[in-house]
TrEMBL record:
Subunit structure: Homodimer. Interacts with SepRS.
Record-linked NCBIfam families: PRK09331.1, SepCysS
Swiss-Prot/TrEMBL cofactor(s): pyridoxal 5'-phosphate
Residues in coiled coil: none
Protein name, entry field: O-phospho-L-seryl-tRNA:Cys-tRNA synthase
One biological process term in Gene Ontology: translation
Modified residues (N6-(pyridoxal phosphate)lysine): 216
Length: 392
């Protein structure tokens, strides 16, 4: 089936069990699919935009209420929806960071955190990870002290990932925030792999800012996300325009500078809204999701030579696995080389492992049913056995 002239219809989610690490939490709900069709036109949500002509004030569809609901859900004071987590990083960095400022990030930070700091003229300074691939309060304190000595000033901002994208490890964010606040450094918590798939309480974490990704973890169309903050910071990061035309004298009311006036329109915001009741409910089943992750991880570990590089037991559904001692030994001799694994998985209705990956790779089991989880685990073991690997 074709979508337009030369675009094949995407059928990955209908035809396969998808364990792609970045796609699992972003699968659209049926309600979001329907909303996407109904509100696909670019300015569809603007039908009833009235004074003060800002997205977060629109009552129909209930976008204003959605903002309030998101804030309450995250236990933060104020929320704005944004075009992806990266735009949330950018809004905060451009507000707080001046040219030449040192900004604390971590050695597990996503590249878009670096981009946000760079765009603001800041200089990223990384907190190193420990031997267990964790960012700890102690190493955060050591880095802050080192940066203060090096730059003779306190960093204006610290970024920390609630769950990092490399290992899927859950970090001691509350402890790190406590340390940063002792130096009066505000903290942005990157919740791209937590907001929407596991319970997140911003104030319990002590966060000054919580950023989430709609298309990564909130079953929403791309690009979508959110930026949540406290009353202490809202007026600054969501400051309204003071610009005035020198010829026309024009001013622009309540438009927010970092939001470029309005943010998500049409399909992105309405899709995010349509999925929200499902997202709010599904985070209550996080322990089941973690148990599913553990089941597939254990199946892989039953294959001799396989190692898990993420925390074990698992605390998240995103897992980094090392099969250099198992599947990669098969790849060395197989006619398809490293592509044999993804090929064998596809025969069994499973996709999401990067083709050619048999050394170190990631998978994400979020959202799979118990039956699908069993099939994925059994498939890995079956492929291993068929290719002469020992099962422990």
């Amino acid at each position: 089936m074709k979508c337009g002239v030369d675009i094949d219809a995407r059928d990955v989610e209908e035809m396969y069990i998808n364990i792609d690490p970045i796609q699992a939490g972003g699968r659209l709900t049926a309600d979001a699919m329907k909303a996407a069709i109904a509100f696909g036109d670019g300015y569809s949500v603007c039908d009833n935009c009235r004074s003060p002509f800002r997205l977060d004030y629109i009552q129909n569809p209930p976008i204003a209420q959605f903002h309030a609901d998101l804030a309450a859900w995250l236990n933060m004071d104020t929320v704005r929806v944004v075009p992806g987590a990266r735009r949330g990083f950018q809004a905060v960095a451009s507000t707080y960071v001046e040219k030449g400022d040192p900004v604390i990030v971590t050695s597990l930070a996503h590249y878009t955190e670096f981009m946000a700091v760079e765009a603001a003229g800041g200089i990223p300074q990384e907190i190193p990870k420990d031997a267990k691939n964790h960012i700890t309060p102690d190493t955060a304190a050591e880095k802050i002290e080192a940066v203060i000595r090096k730059f003779s000033r306190t960093p204006p901002l610290l970024f920390v990932d609630h769950v990092d994208y490399q290992y899927g490890n859950v970090h001691d964010v509350a402890g790190i925030v406590k340390v940063a606040h002792q130096y009066d450094i505000p903290v942005l918590v990157n919740g791209a792999y937590s907001v929407g798939i596991m319970p997140v309480d911003g104030k319990a974490l002590g966060a000054d800012f919580v950023v989430g990704s709609g298309h990564k973890s909130m079953a929403a169309p791309a690009p979508s996300g959110l930026l949540a903050t406290t009353n202490e910071h809202a007026e600054r990061v969501f400051r309204t325009t003071k610009a005035k035309g020198d010829v026309t004298g024009r001013t622009f009311g309540m438009k927010e500078v970092e939001m470029m006036g309005c943010t998500l329109m049409g399909v992105t915001v309405v899709g995010m809204m349509a999925s929200f009741p499902h997202v709010r409910e599904r985070v209550q089943h996080w322990e089941t999701e973690v148990a599913h992750s553990q089941e597939v991880t254990d199946a892989l570990l039953s294959i001799e030579g396989t190692k898990v590089l993420s925390d074990y037991p698992r605390r998240h559904t995103l897992t980094r696995i090392d099969t250099r001692g198992s599947f990669d030994t098969v790849a060395q001799q197989h006619k398809k080389r490293g592509y044999f694994l993804s090929s064998e998985l596809k025969k069994r209705g499973i996709t999401g492992v990067i083709p050619g990956s048999t050394r170190v790779w990631k998978f994400n089991t979020f959202g799979l049913t118990a039956k699908q989880i069993r099939h994925v685990g059994e498939s890995f073991v079956e492929i291993a056995r068929e290719n002469g690997l020992n099962i422990l």
